[in-house]
Specification:
The protein has about 150 residues and is mainly alpha-helical. About 65% of the residues lie in helices and about 0% in strands.
């Protein structure tokens, strides 16, 4: 699955997200297609969860699981950035991380746990060091990257 297919799935499954897709870079031909911002989609999913829309939250995570399993590197990077954003947002919500974990499939759970472990390891680092390290972990290049074992 390429990024265009993944964004098409999100737009079809969650029509309210289709109007929020943006072109990421007019200078980069690989990313001229509109894509959904990972943080915006994370806010959307966390809001759905807070509103008790469990079926829609599960639908989102089922699609993300498929993207991690069959997606190209850009898709897996997108999903891992989304997972990181959900972790950050869920810390501030009443449901917390425990409320999210129940929706995760095996691959999204592995990404969640890996990012959580990295976050724990970086607790003593400066904010800049932690952010750079997390970015590198999420955007690592190569087949099998993006927190896949």
């Amino acid at each position: 699955m390429n990024l265009k297919q993944a964004m098409s799935y999100l737009g079809q499954t969650f029509p309210e997200m289709k109007n929020r897709q943006v072109v990421t870079s007019p200078w980069c031909p690989r990313f001229r297609e509109p894509i959904c911002d990972e943080h915006d989609f994370a806010r959307f999913v966390v809001t759905e969860m807070a509103q008790g829309k469990s079926h829609r939250v599960q639908l989102a995570f089922d699609g993300l699981e498929e993207m991690l399993c069959s997606g190209e590197i850009e898709v897996r990077d997108w999903v891992c950035t989304f997972v990181e954003a959900v972790q950050e947002l869920s810390e501030w919500k009443q449901t917390g991380a425990e409320g999210v974990v129940r929706f995760l499939g095996p691959e999204t759970r592995r990404a969640w746990e890996a990012l959580d472990a990295i976050r724990g390891d970086l607790a003593e680092c400066s904010t800049l060091e932690a952010e750079v390290t997390m970015w590198r972990a999420v955007h690592h290049t190569g087949r099998g990257a993006s927190l896949r074992g």
